[in-house]
Amino acid sequence: MPADFNGQWVMVTNENFEDIMNAIDIDFATRKIARHLTQTKVIVQNGDKFETKTLSTFRNYEVNFTVGEEFEEVTKGLDNRTIQTLVTWDGDKLVAVQKGEKANRGWMQWIEGDLLHLEIHVEDKICKQVFKKKP
Ligand code: ECB
After folding, report:
1. Does residue 1 have a pLDDT over 80?
2. Mapping DSSP to helix (H, G, I), strand (E, B) and coil, where does residue 117 land?
3. Does the interface predicted TM-score (ipTM) exceed 0.90?
4. Which residue of 14, 26, 53, 106 is most buried, as measured by CB atoms within 10 A?
């Protein structure tokens, strides 16, 4: 039984988001807006199958994947790159490796109690986001 990520998760902290945005070449005007957003993560999970939406008042980002199956991800509305993404389990953690133009790109996501933790990394930068589950 894999971990259960189902639910709506509201951002409570977002550390070093600016660093990640810089690392993927997001322009100043967009960064200025994006840094203040409270993101909401909506996850529908069926075993290893995930439908995910990251929502905000400014832009939304959707990505669907099956754990263990590499796919082509287009980061539409983010940095608009095409990358090859593979998500795997590391115990109860989801680990994504995103191969493309940017080195060491990926994320790790896991649950602790009613908190969802997401670490996004690109090159030598790490952004740490925490979301709280909506009751
Ligand atoms: C979509 C809400 C944020 C919109 C910000 C707009 C512009 C900034 C451009 C790039 C910011 C860098 C990364 C975006 C951060 C979060 C988006 C989703 C990250 C992701 O892939 O999460 C996974 C794991 O939760 C989705 O399955």
Report:
1. no
2. strand
3. yes
4. 14
